[in-house]
Fold this protein.
Amino acid sequence: MLNTHILDAIERMSGIDCYLKTPAFLNLKVLEASKRLNLDFEVFKEKIETETLSEVELLQLIDCVTVPRTQMFRNRRLMEYIEKLLSKESEHQPLKVWSAACSSGEEAYSISFLSRSVGARSCDIWASDMSELRIQKALSKDLTSLKNDTPQGFYYCVGNVDESNFVEMKGDVSFFSHNLRKDVPEPYHNFFDVVICQNCLCYYRPDAKEEIIKNLLGSLRSPESVLIVSSTDLHGTNIDSKQIVRI
Ligand SMILES: C[S@@+](CC[C@H](N)C(=O)[O-])C[C@H]1O[C@@H](n2cnc3c(N)ncnc32)[C@H](O)[C@@H]1O
C-alpha cells in the first residue's frame, strides 16, 4: 500500500489532492501507471517518493489517477447556457469556445451539435486534455455512435443535423494536448469568448486550482468573456472574478 510520503510526493508533483481518494483506489491507479510504463511497481513507487519521475511518467500517473468519465450533453444547464449564447443573432463574430480538460471530446462535440442545429451565431470550438490517449480517442470518435448516447432532452440537436454532415463535423473541433497547470499556449492568450472547465478542478488542491483558474482567465478575450466551472470548484480558493460562471 502507498505510504503518506508517496501520497505527499504525488500531491507536490501533480497538485492532485490524493487525500480525496481511498488508499486502495490510489494503490490500484499507481500500479496501473507502472504497468503502462513497463516499470516495476516498487521501482515506480521509489521514483515517486524521491520525486524523480520524468515528465512522461508523471503524465501517465496523473492520467491514471484522474477519471476520464464524460458524456454527451452531460450538464444540461451548461448546454442551455451555450445555446443562449449561440442564439444571439446580433453577433457577427463566431463564438470561440474552449472545452478545457475535454477527455474524449463529448463536451466539445455536444457544442458542435448545438451550434449546427440551433446556432444563429457560428461557433469555433477548441478542446484540450492533458492526456494524449484521450485526445486520440476524441479524434477517432464515430459521431454516429454519439447519437445513441444523447439524452432524450437534447435529441433535437442531433436529430436536426443531417447524418451526411457527421464526418465533416469532426472538423468543427480543433483538439490539442495541454496540461492546465502549464501556461496557456501563446496563441490562446486573450482569445476565447467561453472557456469551459468542468469536472476537472475537483481533483486539485486549492492552490493548484487557483493556478489553473488564473491561467484560464488569461485566455479570455474580453471583459464579457466567461470561464465556466462546476458549481463547487471554487471551494477552498480565494478566487473571485465576475468572469467566472458556476454551473
Ligand atoms: C472527468 S473528465 C471531465 C471531462 C469533461 N470536461 C466533462 O465534464 O465531461 C476529467 C478530465 O480532466 C483531465 N485533466 C485532469 N487534470 C488535467 C490537467 N492538469 N490538464 C488537463 N487536463 C486534465 C483528465 O485527463 C480527464 O480527461
Summary: The chain is about 40% helix and 10% strand.
